[in-house]
Amino acid sequence: MLAAGGFLDPKQLLSNGGYALLFLIIFAESGLLVGFFLPGDSLLFTAGAIAAGAFAPHLDVDFNVVVLCVGCFLAAVIGDQVGYLIGAKAGRRLFNRPDSRLFKKEYVDKAEGFFARYGAKAIVLARFVPVVRTFVPTVAGVSRMNYPLFLRFNLIGGLIWGVGVTLLGYLFGNISYVKENFEIAILGVVVLSLAPILFEVLSHRRSAGQS
Fold first, then answer.
1. Residue 19 CB neighbour total at 10 angstroms
2. What per-residue confidence (pLDDT) applies to 4?
3. Angle, vertex CA 205, rays to CA 40 and CA 150, nearest 5
4. Would you state the pLDDT for residue 73?
5. Which among 53, 1, 39 is positioned nearest to 172, based on CA atoms?
6. Residue 26 above 90 pLDDT?
7. Rounded CA gap, 30 and 27, in Å?
8. Which residues contact 6 (CB under 8 A, 6 or more apart)?
9. Do the beta carbons of residue 200 and residue 79 sit within 8 Å?
10. DSSP 103
């Protein structure tokens, strides 16, 4: 999710919390049902930009891009594993609770619809859809998705998202235009991250038209 300012401002969060807070947020957004509001995409891109020296010496934090990529990948994958296990253990009763600031039934409905539409590929595609990515692993667990299949797609999704978005920030975040228009750049990354969904939709329509 995009957070331009306030307590979810990515630069401020990373400056205050460093690696630990970054990995915790990626884990929570991936695997805990209360993490849907966290700014995963913008944090990954910003962390990569910081590793490239984009905001030195203005931010009191320094990142190594290898540590970032490994840590974000593991946090994303482990988060999804936890979400799957929660769903598999708790079952549908997990979703039978009233709405609150940290839980919305409509988000579960969206995740279930997403999972029903894309099947196993939803584990990868959901990585690029804020809110949905928080709930899809748990929905997969509730649905008793084949675990080895889930793990395979989880690893792919964690690599493409956790490492891919971080490297985008590292490769492009230190460019003058990007630094001067950083919030627009983050918005562009969020829009770009929807490309896998668009590709899947177009492929599905093409296949349907040929059948």
1. 17
2. 45
3. 45
4. 98
5. 53
6. yes
7. 5
8. none
9. no
10. B
Q: Tokens standing for 57?
A: 């010496």
Instruction: Look at residue 209 in the predicted model and tell me its pLDDT.
Output: 61
Gap between the terminal Cα atoms of the chain: 37
> Which CA distances in Å does 70 have to 26, 90, 111, 168?
12, 30, 27, 15
User: For residue 54, which of 180, 155, 165, 145 has the smallest C-alpha distance?
Assistant: 180
Structure tokens at 72: 């974000």
Mean per-residue pLDDT for 41-56? 91
| Residues 187/98, Cβ–Cβ less than 8 Å | no
Per-residue confidence band for 37, with pLDDT thresholds at 50, 70 and 90: confident
Whether the Cβ atoms of residue 29 and residue 134 lie closer than 8 Å to each other: yes
| Whole-number pLDDT of residue 1 | 46
Q: Tell me what the mean pLDDT of segment 170-184 comes to.
A: 90
The DSSP bridge partners found for residue 140 are none
